[in-house]
């Protein structure tokens, strides 16, 4: 069964810093990978979907990369802002969605 | 934008009560999912459906059932609520083959069973 790990579980950074969130998965036979953001007490909001044939995907200050062979994805956030504070989850997709437990990000003003 | 609407944001029920959680999506998505989310355990799949009247068990179906009578609506039913079903319940939907397209979530339903 696919296992998805996100390390660290929590991260605090000062405003303006660039940061990288990590997602590791055990089975490289994936279809796609999706990054989500979750605010406290809310549902998940999709940030980026990377197709298995792609190496990366960009949206504004966000850039997600995918290396299937090594079982890793990273989410790069440029010039972090307090509004970026949230939990970030990745999901790898094969026959169903397999979620990591997330990284809780705090951006300190 | 696709909208996934969960009818209740917060519910408080008593042990043994029957609970209905409703989810409606407005973009003709084939696939719909029910997850529960608990601290330290992440999201766990309860049931999913890839077509009207079709349902498949996820990882933790015990104590739950589902209904999909119309394409846009996917209901989660707790026949006899128990305290260990206190959780955040999240509905999601996606178009076409699982994983080919973005998975869209509702806002969640926080259920407390006393």
Secondary-structure blueprint:
The complex is a heterodimer of chains A (109) and B (114).
Chain A: E1 4-5, E2 10-14, E3 19-25, E4 32-38, E5 44-51, E6 56-59, E7 62-67, E8 72-77, E9 86-93, E10 97-99, E11 103-108
Parallel strand pairs in A: 2-11
Antiparallel strand pairs in A: 1-3, 3-8, 4-5, 4-9, 6-7, 7-8, 9-10, 9-11
Chain B: E1 4-6, E2 10-13, E3 19-25, E4 31-38, E5 42-49, E6 56-57, E7 65-70, E8 73-78, E9 87-94, E10 104-105, E11 109-113
Parallel strand pairs in B: 2-11
Antiparallel strand pairs in B: 1-3, 3-8, 4-5, 4-9, 5-6, 7-8, 9-10, 9-11
Explain this structure.
- The complex is a heterodimer of chains A (109) and B (114).
- Chain A is mainly beta.
- Chain A has strands at 4-5, 10-14, 19-25, 32-38, 44-51, 56-59, 62-67, 72-77, 86-93, 97-99, 103-108.
- The radius of gyration of chain A is 13 Å and the shape is globular.
- Helices cover 0% and strands 52% of the residues of chain B.
- With 114 residues, chain B is an all-beta fold.
- The interface between A and B is medium-sized, with 22 and 25 residues.
Give the class of chain A from helix and strand content and strand pairing.
Answer: mainly beta
What's the shape of chain A?
globular
The DSSP helix count of chain A reads: 0
Instruction: Kindly provide the radius of gyration of chain B, computed on alpha-carbon positions and rounded to a whole number of angstroms.
Output: 13 Å
Low-confidence stretches of chain A: none
Instruction: Spell the H/E element sequence of chain A.
Output: EEEEEEEEEEE
The greatest interface between two protein chains, and residues involved on each side, is: A-B, 22 and 25 residues
Give me the secondary-structure category of chain B.
Answer: mainly beta
Number of DSSP strand runs of chain A:
11
List SSEs of chain B in N-to-C order: EEEEEEEEEEE
Largest sheet of chain A: 6 strands, mixed
Beta-sheet strand percentage of chain A? Answer: over 45%
CA-based shape of chain B: globular
Strand proportion of chain B: over 45%
**Helicity level of chain B:** under 10%
Number of helices of chain B: 0
User: How many strand elements of chain B?
Assistant: 11
How far apart are the first and last residues' alpha carbons of chain B, in Å? 37 Å
